[in-house]
Amino acid sequence: MANLIRWTLVAGLFAAAPALAKVSADEAAKLGKELTPVGATKTANADGSIPAWDGGLTKAPACFKGEGSRYCDPFGDDKPLLTITAKNLAEHKAKLTAGQIALFEKYPDSYSMKVYETRRTFANPPFVYDATARNATSATLGGNGEALQGAITGIPFPIPQNGHEVIWNHKVRYRDIGVRRWNNQFAVTTAGDYNLVKIQEDAFFVYSQPDIDPASLNNKILYFLQLTTAPARLAGTILLVHETMDQVAEPRGAWQYNPGQRRLRRAPNIAYDNPGTASDGLRTNDQLDMYNGAMDRYQWKLVGKKEIYVPANSYALHSDALKYRDVMKKGHINQDHARYELRRVWVVDSFVKPGVSHIYKRRTFHVDEDSWQIVAVDVYDQRDQMWRVQEGHHVIAYDKPYQLPVLETVYDLQSARYLVMAANNEDEETRTRKFSVEDFSPTSVSKLATK
Predict the structure, then answer these.
(1) Separation of alpha carbons 182 and 184, rounded Å
(2) Domain holding 247: CATH number?
(3) Which of 83, 115, 220, 365 is packed most tightly, with the most Cβ within 10 A?
(4) Would you place residue 451 in the very low, low, confident or very high pLDDT band (cuts 50, 70, 90)?
(5) What is residue 21's predicted lDDT score, i.e. its pLDDT?
(6) How far, CA to CA in Å, does 386 sit from each of 58, 99, 183, 414?
(7) Signal peptide position in this chain (predicted)?
(8) Interior CA angle at 66 toward 63 and 68, to 5°?
(9) pLDDT (tens digit, 9 = 90+) per residue, 378-432?
(10) CB-based burial, 246-255: b 16+ in 10 Å, e otherwise
(11) 3-class state of residue 278 by DSSP
(12) DSSP character for 382?
């Protein structure tokens, strides 16, 4: 009962918080003390099942072979503390999301969750921490939450006052400055078969550069280039995105190249609930990276914090010893390779605004307090029924350091199908790349497309 009362008080406090409130200097001074440098509670929880944060994982383990090699598992000797199945589900519901519970109910004979010791491995470079401290007292939102102002490089709202701020923290979290990765997609059938779409992606996170002047960003926070290489019918398809900081003054810029048309064209439909690239209708554009893009079709409510079991330190699932067939199974991924830990998460509810449309009427986001990474999403249809469930599996790129997505799922409970994104077990590891803004200009991409 005491926990319920505390939860209710926290929920009421954050629901009533002013939309554009700044954090005081006294509040910001908690960063690096009782709070981590990016705003998480630094101390352990009441029973110690969530330990205190001690700086994270910043030293590569002996198994790591250096820049560009696979991020091997520093915790390969860990054994599960418990395994949740449909048989003991009732004992653990309080620490599960509604979507996770729905997966146990949908697949009672096969779905399980192995829960391991919580290891708070998250870390970022010192310049990100320094920038976050500056942002805490300067960052604001304009344009009904669609314009980020007074922030650069670090987390803009380490002590959030509303749901918009939490989601902005996710959208601009540090993910290196430039990377190339394989974002392979698997649309898995009800029988467990799948269609593989191989996608190479380049991203230039201009917002995340150290010592950058916000005025020099030209209102951009990132540049994104996606090249589909297989299957043959899709090979050569290109997507280019310029994501903006003030989305009221300048909406996202997007272009698409279709090899059949041999021309790079504006693509304003690359947003919101339009179908995602080669996803077989199993995700929307705004579900890539768990959530991306404008937030203006939803009302956002910061509910508070909660302790739940979420994917974390997913090195085993990311191993190059696994083949894609080892991961993709009927109904859901092979949960034997998935690692869950008890974490504190921010809970944010979103509801479609009156007068606008989205195929998802409501979404509940669970955002890891250490990394500001969305780790689970419950997605509801127009009848308020659970429709889809998202989970994000990640590792710490300990030589950088930052939190690296290694596999994302979108489970469609109604069709009994699912989509996997960002897996690269049989391909190259995500690598740091040096980019310029010119690499992502429509002119440069047009030349690339016609080579």
Answers:
(1) 6
(2) 2.50.20.10
(3) 365
(4) low
(5) 56
(6) 39, 7, 26, 9
(7) 1-21
(8) 115
(9) 999 999 999 999 999 999 999 999 999 999 999 999 999 999 999 999 999 999 9
(10) ebeeebbbbb
(11) coil
(12) T
Range of the domain at 125: 2-449
Record the tokens describing residue 225, joined without a space.
Answer: 């280039």
**DSSP code at position 244:** E
Is residue 40 within 8 A of residue 54, CB to CB? The reply is no
- The C-alpha atoms of residue 32 and residue 210 are separated, in whole angstroms, by 19
Chain centroid to Cα 441, Å, comes to 26
Tokens 């299957």 correspond to: 231
Least reliable range by pLDDT among 13-27, 190-204, 265-279: 13-27
CA–CA dist 79, 82 (Å, integer): 9
Degrees (nearest 5) of the Cα angle 317, 323, 324? Answer: 80
Tokens of 346: 């921010």
Query: Residue 42 corresponds to which tokens in the numbers above?
Result: 């630094």
Q: How many domains does the chain have?
A: 1
- Omega before residue 401 within 30° of 0, cis: yes
What confidence tier does 5 reach under pLDDT thresholds 50, 70, 90? very low
Q: Is the pTM of this model over 0.90?
A: yes
Residue with tokens 């890539």: 288
Q: Which two tokens stand for residue 15?
A: 């629901």
Q: In angstroms, how far is the first alpha carbon of the chain from the final one?
A: 66
Say what the pLDDT of residue 449 is. 79
Encoded amino acid at 152, one letter: I
Number of other CB atoms surrounding residue 436 within 10 Å? 12
Q: Is 14 left (phi over 0), alpha (psi -120 to 50) or beta?
A: alpha
Q: Which of 69, 78, 209, 181 is nearest to 405 (CA)?
A: 181
Amino acid at 64: F
Amino acid at 262: R
